[in-house]
Amino acid sequence: MLFRLKFLPLALALVALMLFGTSCGSSSGKLRVVQAIPDVPSAQPLDIYLDGSKVANQVGFGGLFPTSGYHSTSSGSRHLQVYLSGQTTNPYFDGNLTISNGTDYTTVLTGSITSNSVVAPLLTDNNSKPSSSGNFELRIIHASPFWNSFFGGMDVYVVAPGTSISAVSPTVSNLTYKNASTYVSAAAGTYEVIMTPVGLKANDIDVTYTFNAGQIRTLVVTDAEGGGFPGTPVELNDLN
Q1: How far apart are CA 15 and CA 82, in angstroms?
Q2: Statement: 128-240 belongs to CATH 2.30.110.10
C-alpha cells in the first residue's frame, strides 16, 4: 500500500506532462486572402482551396476570404490553390504559405491570369492595439501590377485634408510591388491618403478617410477591375 501511495504522485505528474506536451504540439495561425487579380472575368470569380479543401466559393475582385476577420489554420506549410469558380484543374495560383504559431497574415492574390503571372505575397499583420490610446494605425499594401509596370514603387502621404504635399515629405517612401508598408500611427481623425510615383508630387490616388481611436486599417492598392490605373484602395478592417 505504501508503494502504491508513493507511486500515485509520480503517475499524476506524468499524465500532466503528457497533456501539456499534447497542447503545446497543437499550434495555429490566422490567414485572410484578398482577391486582387484584375483580369479574372467578373462573371466567373474564384474558388479558394487550402490544403486540398475548398474554403471560399466565388470570391470576386476586391473580395476577401473570410469576409471579415481571419481564417484559423494549422501552423507550418499550408497549400493554397486558386481556381476559376467551379473548376479544379489549371489553378491560377498553386503554392505554399508558411504559417507561424500565433501570427496573423494577409495574402494578396495579384498579377495577371493572361500572362500567367499570379502571385500571392504573404504579409505579416500586427493587430496589437495602438500603444497610444488616442491613435489609430494604418498600413498600405502595393498590389497594383499596372502601377508597378509604369512607375515601380509609390510614395504615400497621410495628411490633413486639403494639405498641399508640395513641401511635405512622404509618410511612406518607395513602397514596392507585393510589399506592405510599416504601420503608420497618428491621432484619430480625418485624413487624406495620397499615393504618388516615387519623388513626384502629383495626387494620383487621393482618398479621404476618417479613423477612430484604437482602429487598425490596411489599404490594398489594386488595379482597377479588368486592369488599368488603380482606383479606390480596398480597405481592410484589421482591428475596430
Answers
A1: 43
A2: no
**Annotated domain spans of the chain:** 28-125, 128-240
Read off the pTM. Answer: 0.88
Class of domain 28-125: mainly beta
pLDDT tens track for 158-192: 999 999 999 999 999 999 999 999 999 999 999 99
Question: Residues 113, 128: contact at Cβ < 8 Å?
Answer: no
**Burial group, residue 195, by CB count within 10 angstroms (0-12, 13-18, 19+):** buried
Q: Helices in the chain by DSSP H: which ranges?
A: 2-25, 145-150
- Report the alpha-carbon distance of residue 39 to residue 82 in Å, rounded: 14
Give residue for cell 504635399.
165
Burial 81-98 (b: 16+ CB within 10 A, else e): bbbbbeeeeebbbeeebe
